[in-house]
Amino acid sequence: MNIENLLRETLSDMAGEERPPAPERFLRPLARRPRSRGLALMAATAVAAMVVGSTLVVQQMSVPAPLGAAPRPSPSLQVGATVNVAAGMRLSLLFKQLSQLTGRPVADFERAAKDGAALGLPSYAGRRLEGFAFPGTYEFSPAASPAEILRPMVARFEDAAEAADLADGARRAGRTPLEIVTIASIVQAEAGRDEDMTKISRVIHNRLDRKMLLQMDSTILYGLNKYGTEATLKDARSPSPYNTYRRPGLPPGPIGSPGAEAIRAALHPARGTWLYFVAIDPKKPVMKFATTESERAALLEERRKNLKGS
Description:
Layout: H1 3-15, H2 35-45, E1 47-52, E2 55-60, E3 81-85, H3 91-102, H4 106-113, H5 116-119, E4 136-140, H6 146-164, H7 166-172, H8 177-190, H9 197-209, H10 217-223, H11 233-236, H12 260-267, E5 276-279, E6 287-290, H13 293-309
Antiparallel strand pairs: 1-2, 3-4, 5-6
Helix pairs in contact: 1-2, 8-9, 8-12, 9-12
């Protein structure tokens, strides 16, 4: 029997009742109810439930109000919410979206993000969620706590880390797991397309090995809570610990949520001697790579011509 017929039969049955059923009728164990009453209860409440991951999402199936009746607002508990964590997304933006979906203040999610044990963060994360909310689509009940909403994102990161053999791969690369996730987050932020990721990773590894400044615009912009593709000269003077134009080595931690491809690129950079990369065309997400300063200067000139012609 489909749900429409079931509702029709139940509403007809309820219309013939002289008074509402006693509350204790709904408190009896399910096994003791007559089948027809069990079906009536299912239809009368008209509740559909789904389990998504470890979260129970409850959706209320609305019944049309009588003509002329004022519409009643539906409580947020009645409808499941969906959030998409895009590759490279920062926590600050994710928390704003979750705040809008749940009605909770951003501060609630910021507070939950500091409890690494409750979220299941790996020990090397340093109790920081940034970089460990894995990209993907997540469905949850708006009634869920911030920790309950964020925990599946960490669990999916752990799955991806295990699939990539992150811990052992980092050791073989002479890096810590946190350094690999941080490199992956920079690769994710800088790459316009997946095929450039392993080369960008090689540039980062080469510069770190040579004790060169990374000079990544993406890290500066993250530290200043700005978005864009290029930092300004003023930005490059920032005292932020994420200013890799002034501070040696990697920034203090990831600058966004890297996807599986970026993590693999961080672990397995392409072979090459490149120390620079330049986005040469404003209309296409194409990178070109250089080893020497003169090669880099030629790429910058090519970029200037493309910008002038666009």
